[in-house]
Structures are given as C-alpha cells and as structure tokens.
Amino acid sequence: xxxxxxxxxxxxxxxxxxxxxxxxxxxxxxxxxxxxxxxxxxxxxxxxxxxxxxxxxxxxxxxxxxxxxxxxxxxxxxxxxxxxxxxxxxxxxxxxxxxxxxxxxxxxxxxxxxxxxxxxxxxxxxxxxxxxxxxxxxxxxxxxxxxxxxxxxxxxxxxxxxxxxxxxxxxxxxxxxxxxxxxxxxxxxxxxxxxxxxxxxxxxxxxxxxxxxxxxxxxxxxxxxxxxxxxxxxxxxxxxxxxxxxxxxxxxxxxxxxxxxxxxxxxxxxxxxxxxxxxxxxxxxxxxxxxxxxxxxxxxxxxxxxxxxxxxxxxxxxxxxxxxxxxxxxxxxxxxxxxxxxxxxxxxxxxxxxxxxxxxxxxxxxxxxxxxxxxxxxxxxxxxxxxxxxxxxxxxxxxxxxxxxxxxxxxxxxxxxxxxxxxxxxxxxxxxxxxxxxxxxxxxxxxxxxxxxxxxxxxxxxxxxxxxxxxxxxxxxxxx
Length: 480
Prior knowledge:
The protein is globular. The protein is α/β, with parallel strands linked by helices. The chain has a 7-stranded mixed beta sheet, with helices on both faces. The protein starts with a helix and ends with a helix. It is built from 16 helices and 17 strands. It has helices at residues 3-27, 40-47, 51-63, 81-86, 92-97, 106-114, 135-148, 161-172, 189-199, 242-249, 271-284, 339-353, 358-370, 372-398, 424-433, 461-479; strands at 67-70, 74-77, 121-122, 183-186, 206-210, 227-231, 233-234, 237-238, 253-257, 288-291, 316-321, 333-336, 403-405, 413-418, 436-437, 439-440, 451-455.
C-alpha cells in the first residue's frame, strides 16, 4: 500500500473513531439531548487529527440525526438511539434549566475548566503552587495515621470532636474564644455559605457585600432566593456608612465580608472600620458572615483581630478553611457561631452529606494539633513574599504605563486597573489564546472600569514573568 492510500485509510479510521466516541457518550447518557458536545478543537486534540477529519465525523452524525449545529452554540445533541426509534425524545437539558440551583456564569465555567489545563500559565488560580505543598510531611502524617487508625464510620453531626478541639485551640491563638460545641466542620467555606443560605436566610432576603466581591461569580445565595446588594469599598474595606442606607431599602439583610486580604482587591479592613462595622451591625440588627480564609496569608504584617474576636453578642458567623493555606484537596473548613445556630446547620449538613470525610478530618487534626500546620504557614508566607515581590517587579517593568495597582500586604492576588478603554472580553480571549489564563473584573461585579485579577500564588516565577510580558503586548495592541 502506497503512503497516499495509507493516509486516506488512517483518516477514515480516525473519523469513524470520533463518531463512535461521540455515539458512546450519547448512548450512555453522558451527553443528553440538549447538551453541547466537545468543540472541534478539543476533539482534534483528543484524537490527534486535523479539524477537517473532525468535521467529516460531525457531518456524518448530523446526517444520522444525532447532533445539530446551532449558531453561536456549536453542536448540540438532538437525539439518541432510543429517541430515534420512539420519536419521543426526552430532553434532560430542559430539566437542568428549571432546577433550583443556578449555574455559574459562562465565563466562570470556562475559567474553571481552563484551570485544569497544565499547558496554560495560571494567573487565575486562587490556590498555592504545588511547590509549596508539604509533600514529605503530608506523607508522614498519613503514614502515622494509617498505623493508628481503626474502624471508623460516620462522624457526629458537628464533625470529629478532636478536630473541633484542635480548631478551638487554634482559634484561641487568633483571639477567638470558642468551644468545640460552637464549631461545625464543613467541606470548605463554600459549603458553609450554602448551609447558611438554605438554613438561616428567608427567600427574598438581601446579602450586603463588598463590591467587587468573589461572591458575584457564584450563585450560592441567589439559588436560595436571595439577592445581592453591593457596598462600596476603599483601601480600609467596606464603607460602613452605606449599610444603614441599604438596610432601609432591604429590611431583611445580612452582611457578607472578607475583611482580611479581600478577594479580589487584596485590601485589609482597618481595625477602626471593623469596630464601626460591628457597631452598625448591632444597631441595625444585621448579622455578619465573616469569611476569613485568607487571614494567615499575611506577608508584611498581621491583619487586625477578626470581627469574631470582638463579637460580644453572637452577631458574627465566622468561616475558616485549610484550602488556601494548606491544600483544597482535604476539603476541610469550619463554621463558628452561636451553639443553637451550629446545631441547626449541623442537622442540615447531615441531611446533605452525612458529614465531611473522616480521613480528611483526622489528617487535619494531626496537622493542627502537632504544630505542623503552624510551621507550614510560616514557610508559605515567606514564599508568597518572594512571589508577590517578583510579580510587582515585572508589573513595574512591563505594565508601568499601561495599568495601576496597589501592592497587597498579603493574600494571593493583585487587583489591576488597565488604563484607557479596553474590551475586557477581548483581553481575556487574546490572553487565553496566548496561553495565559486570568480573571476579568466583571466576574466580581466590577461593571465599571478596566480590571483584572492576577494570582501570584500558583504559577512558577518564570511563568509569572512570561504571563505579564504577554499581557503587556496584548494590552498595548488593544489600546493603540
């Protein structure tokens, strides 16, 4: 067989493989009617073929009536083998659209998917670099645990008692006096927000939060029937004088704040502003959710005491987590509040997942009680300082005349304002095409101005410089 005939045969085999792959996804129900299938580019990458081979396979599937190309959407599953026989297709996608829980914004979904792509320069990830993961200590911790562990099953509703005791002692070192009975172990701070939204807030309530804020990229409160109302911020945090005004508009309200190394701006709420917030919260009878998951990631100086440390009336629900300081893989966080509230939310958590992982809870207990965690956090701070300082250097070198920023005193992010008028959607797309993933300010509710959030925590130092350099070229081309 000559080479030309062999190439034609390989192409034929490949397009048939692509067809069978897509058919299997549809037949097993993984891709239901109404679902969007993989893009031509992704299929070409999976099968290591050019896009013309993919197009041939898609055209055959369209001819068979299994998929249909829709303008601006790509290819959609329109039938499966059973529906072709019965002429009564069942569209699960219709059920997805009427579900209670609202999906993330499209760009957020795209970012979430792209963050698993190791070929991209990850300037979006709010996660510590694998280089900072204490692998040797973690292996030893798991090994020690394996030698000690016996049979274990479901934990009590509030979580593994030794872990709650360890969290209690750890929080006392932060000035927060709380007993283990007032602590609920959760699978990350996001689960705590979900429990609060369905367990404590009435539909129609309003969440007052900083604008911009991380929560604007999610729908955890809106899915429970809540609305969001933005409160302006400055370098000292939330402008508290705006809260009574918002309260008059929204009688049923709760305050959500990230006072230490705010996401995305990196600002730290001053001690004075914290006292004002507590005073206004008490006077206006508005409870507070304090999301303090970045507190330990200070670089230049420790932030002021947490709101919860000054809470004398049980008005603050406090969230902490190991996800930003140790690893998100453990899925361990905690919620602190009045015992009656914690009891109620513990019951709801049991109904949803019957408790966080017993193994993860024991690993977390070992780290907190042994002192490993505290030593690790000190090391993380040093490495974050090196990374932050390096990123600032490269921003000054490449973006000095194109953007402005404040140097964060801790946390994982730098909030950058682009000078001039630039399409942020175009900037995001062009950066992604160049292999650089960033977070546009729009996903944080930053509707005005030209903002992006860059993370210095995950990418290597070389990638940080390369990413900033590529951004400078793209921004320059868009401004001209």
